[in-house]
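S.,

Sequence below, as promised.
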Amino acid sequence: PRIAYGTGTLQFGELRVPAGTGPHPVVIIIHGGCWVAKLGKLDDRAIALDLVRPIAADLTAHGFDTWNLEYRRLGNDGGGWPGTFQDIAAGADHLRRIAAKNQLDLTRVVAVGHSAGGHFALWLAARPKLPKSSELYVEDPLRLKGVVDLDGPGDLQATLPLQQPVCGAPVITQLMGGSPEERPQRYREGSPVEMLPLGVPQEIFAGRMFAAQAPVYVEAAKRAGDTVNAAIAPQSGHFVFIDPGSSTWPQVVKAIRALIDTRPL
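The prediction came back faster than expected:
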């Protein structure tokens, strides 16, 4: 079912619950799309939660609850900083309000994000570290068991050279309300690499889009003390990671299951 986590028209998620008695582990799914509401001549559904419905359905068939999040983006009223980040956070935290009724196991929650959604998945894991002074701070945010980043950026500053050629606009600068020089605090609170260690295990899949960047983030995360597995495939297209029919998808499911089953340290 479609469940609202806020009052705005884009503040909702789609919950899918597997057969059998729970409580079941939960996968939060965050779609990508250059952080924008409109991308060139693409159908709007290509940059909305519609795009990741197939993997949500497949993961539910594998026994996971899936919570497929929609959120305000650049071009939507209230999108950008801080609204987009606040939507992702509020969407995740809303699981607490629907957990009992839907038999969700909130001790086993993994965030999976594709492309720009990969950035937000990593950020969700990092947000317990936000200072109280931050516009994005909330008390007692939902803790994750792990993160799967599907060809998304862990370092916003390093992604700046890609924003124009890939997205056709300076989308990161727009999302953050300025450059790293103009908004250093926002990049410290919104770019995962600047928030290391995230404190949860991470599975990083990188294809053509982020194969060059991913190893730099992975090394930084490991140096900071995080456990990170990386599958870097420079020849892989950007969308094989969210195609249940691809040869890559079973590896993604396996990575999610490994994170869910990880024993706490």
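The chain has nine helices and eight strands.

Coffee later?
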